[in-house]
Amino acid sequence: MFDLKRKITDFFNKSNIINKINSKKFIFYFLFGLKSRFKQFKININTNCLVFSQYPGAETKGLGGLIAQYPKNFEILCLTNGSNIISDMDPVESASIKRQQFYDVMKTIRIKGYKIFDIDSKTLKNHYSTFKKIDISEIDYIFVPNIYDNNIDTISLLKHFKQILKDKEFKPELKILMYESDFPLCTLDEYVDISSIIETKKKMLRTYYPEDKYPELINKIIGINSFRSIQHNCEYCEAFMVFTPDEFIKIPLI
Fold first, then answer.
1. Residue 45 to residues 25, 32, 166, 178: CA-CA distances in angstroms?
2. Which among 55, 72, 153, 195 has most CB atoms closer than 10 A?
3. Residues 6+ away with beta carbon under 8 Å from 214
4. Nearest Cα to 70, choosing from 46, 54, 91, 35?
5. 180-235, pLDDT tens digit by residue?
6. What is the rounded distance in angstroms from the CA atom of residue 48 to the CA atom of residue 135?
7. Cα torsion for 139, 231, 225, 244, to the nearest 10°?
8. What residues contact 47, with CB distance under 8 A and at least 6 apart?
9. CB–CB of 54/124 below 8 Å?
10. How far is CA 200 from the centre of its chain?
11. pTM score, two decimals?
12. How do residues 55-113 score in pLDDT, each as one tens digit?
């Protein structure tokens, strides 16, 4: 398998047939498309889950249903303050509104622990000193955004996370789950049925995206949960790509 990866990598690096496609990105899609198993994700009463969100609301888009089902098992860390999310507003005011929305959502579902960092949007790359203080030693599952979300803070988040995996202690059985926030995953490993709690997820999303300002956005977000359920006996589900720490560290970043 490793020989196959090397040969494919060499082929795309040396050839000119895909001039405008990042070869590492293409290889990532191809190779991990071979590992899909798509089983049901389950946690128990003692499971500790940590979510990294690249901006306020990303966590709810990607796994709002799951965290609403198991709020006592989750800690949510939002790494930026949303200072550029509301485009027609002063960055300070935008950050203030997005921060309050984040607090309101976390309080609504009574999440075990949550924090939003006072880091401006698009500057996370400069803040590894803050990121490295995060303790992952007792975590069973860590949730991170899709590597191809096309968001500069997503890439910075994942680069920082790779570094703490190299520098810090974690459980041998730790699993990393990549979730869908701004862009669909290329392949899926596990899913969770959120049909019974879909109205709660919609309520969470409405806090971030009021329907008078974002018409149809919530329906579009929920649409992917409906689409993902086609292969399963449910109405709505959230889906994830699962990695061991070693697998995750080897993922190429654009």
1. 37, 31, 29, 22
2. 55
3. none
4. 46
5. 999 998 888 899 999 999 999 999 999 999 998 898 999 999 999 999 998 888 99
6. 12
7. 20
8. 70, 73, 140, 141
9. yes
10. 19
11. 0.87
12. 999 999 999 999 999 999 999 999 999 998 888 889 999 999 999 999 999 999 999 99
CA dist 210 and 76 (Å) reads: 22
Report the distance separating Cα 165 and Cα 245, nearest Å. Answer: 7
DSSP per-residue letters across the chain: -HHHHHHHHHHHHH--TTTTS-HHHHHHHHHHTT----EE----TT--EEEEESSTTHHHHHHHHHHHH-GGGEEEEE-S--TTTSTTS-HHHHHHHHHHHHHHHHHHTT-SEEEE----TT-GGG-HHHHTT---TT-SEEEEE-TTS--HHHHHHHHHHHHHHHHS---TT-EEEEE-SSS--SS-SEEEE-GGGHHHHHHHHHHHS-TTTSTTHHHHHHHHHHHHGGGTTSS-EEEEEEE-HHHHHTS---
CATH of domain 44-243: 3.40.50.10320
Beta-strand relationship, 175-179 and 237-243 = antiparallel
